[in-house]
């Protein structure tokens, strides 16, 4: 029996239509082209996110959902629960998604696009199966999904595709409803623009606060993202493409960070402060929020370890750029605005943390543009991308973002396995 208000059980299968290679796909996507360049008459948008608790009583049940199948006792979960409990047990992510849903609806209405938006989460209410059921009850049969994660990895792409398969099976809509997914948008101008603005403005603020500060030599820009197990990073992206030793996840973040620095400095050089604008700035990609056992390798270096060593390099200020995140959820508020800021104070450095995209006008417009790419079948050559890695695939390739520990599970919007 289909569940309501409960995280759905994992799907046992993702059946294919006769002749199709992609489960639950619209007809133009069923044979798995890298970029779908045929129009699709979508009748709804599925906004997919991680979810978060909204009361103290929700915290441990939420964390049990997050860690399901890993056998982690509640005592261990309480070590993480303190982050949420310090904010009244409420994660900001659900309210941020409500705001994003409203912003998307307003942008769609402004453009005269009649597409309803349904919101579902992986780990807390409203769950993905509830959103899919709501869409089905509204008469929708052809959804285009937007996951609130820009990069390629198991948890930020493939697991959402598994969530869609779980929801379709749970609701009995497998074979009735199709769910395509917009491409990973790490280098889409709408996603990148808020970070360019943030770096440019942070450097201007630091200079205004201390006119003697040497932006080229005394400031470090730290682009930060969620660490993932090295084994997962290596497997991010398709298994027949070489994105370097740490996979597509690392390569995408590095490429975007480079573009942000380049464009922020270019705008400084073209603005009223151009006479004193730096020609370059020190920057690096760092990681945060690792949660695995010490014996398991995760992507490094950790942001706090890096901050600790900056005074020895002559740095006097840090600009932290949460380039891996779309909104100010708990791991931004706790790990950056609390722990990283504290590390910076201990190191005697000035601190600036730039904003995440949130509901930035360009970001919201960019998400709608991504939907229209698929609705209108826009050729790949006409799709905007700020790095040489994009535009990314519409249909995930074979082996994309495998989980080394869990193996492949039924998923949609990608070629098998």
Automatic annotation (TrEMBL):
Any one GO biological process: heme biosynthetic process
EC number: 4.99.1.9
Database matches in Pfam families: Ferrochelatase
Catalytic activity line of the entry: Fe-coproporphyrin III + 2 H(+) = coproporphyrin III + Fe(2+)
Pathway membership: Porphyrin-containing compound metabolism; protoheme biosynthesis
Keyword Metal-binding: yes
Highest rank taxon of the organism: Bacteria
SUPFAM superfamilies (alphabetical): Chelatase
Sequence similarity: Belongs to the ferrochelatase family.
Function: Involved in coproporphyrin-dependent heme b biosynthesis. Catalyzes the insertion of ferrous iron into coproporphyrin III to form Fe-coproporphyrin III.
Protein name: Coproporphyrin III ferrochelatase
Organism, as annotated: Pseudoclavibacter chungangensis
Gene: cpfC
């Amino acid at each position: 029996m289909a569940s309501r208000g409960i995280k759905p059980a994992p799907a046992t299968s993702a059946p294919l239509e006769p002749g199709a290679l992609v489960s639950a796909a619209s007809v133009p996507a069923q044979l798995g082209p890298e970029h779908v360049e045929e129009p699709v008459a979508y009748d709804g948008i599925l906004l997919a996110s991680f979810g978060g608790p909204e009361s103290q009583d929700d915290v441990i049940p939420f964390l049990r959902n997050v860690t399901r199948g890993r056998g982690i006792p509640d005592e261990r979960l309480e070590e993480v629960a303190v982050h949420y409990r310090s904010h009244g047990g409420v994660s900001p992510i659900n309210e941020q998604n409500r705001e994003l849903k409203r912003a998307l609806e307003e942008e769609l209405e402004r453009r005269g696009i009649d597409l309803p938006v349904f919101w579902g989460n992986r780990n807390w209410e409203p769950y993905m199966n509830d959103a899919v059921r709501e869409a089905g009850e509204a008469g929708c049969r052809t959804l285009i999904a937007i996951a609130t994660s820009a990069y390629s990895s198991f948890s930020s792409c493939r697991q959402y595709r598994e969530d869609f398969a779980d929801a379709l099976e749970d609701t009995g809509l497998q074979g009735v409803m199709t769910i395509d997914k917009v491409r990973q948008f790490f280098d889409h101008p709408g996603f990148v623009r808020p970070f360019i603005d943030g770096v440019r403005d942070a450097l201007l603020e630091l200079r205004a606060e201390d006119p003697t500060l040497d932006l080229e030599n005394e400031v470090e820009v730290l682009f930060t993202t969620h660490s993932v197990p090295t084994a997962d990073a290596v497997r991010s992206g398709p298994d027949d493409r070489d994105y370097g030793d740490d996979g597509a996840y690392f390569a995408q973040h590095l490429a975007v960070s480079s573009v942000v620095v380049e464009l922020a400095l270019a705008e400084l050089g073209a603005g009223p402060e151009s006479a004193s604008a730096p020609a370059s700035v020190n920057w690096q990609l760092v990681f945060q929020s690792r949660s695995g056992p010490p014996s398991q390798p995760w992507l490094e270096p950790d942001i706090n370890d890096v901050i600790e060593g900056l005074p020895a390099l002559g740095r006097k200020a840090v600009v932290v750029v949460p380039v891996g995140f779309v909104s100010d959820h708990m791991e931004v508020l706790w790990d950056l605005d609390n722990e990283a800021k504290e590390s910076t104070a201990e190191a005697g450095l000035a601190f600036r943390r730039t904003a995440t995209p949130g509901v930035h006008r360009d970001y919201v417009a960019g998400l709608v543009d991504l939907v229209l790419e698929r609705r209108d079948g826009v050729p790949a050559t006409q799709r905007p991308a700020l790095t040489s890695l994009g535009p990314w695939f519409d249909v995930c390739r074979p082996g994309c973002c495998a989980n080394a520990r869990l193996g492949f599970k039924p998923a949609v919007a990608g070629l098998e396995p």
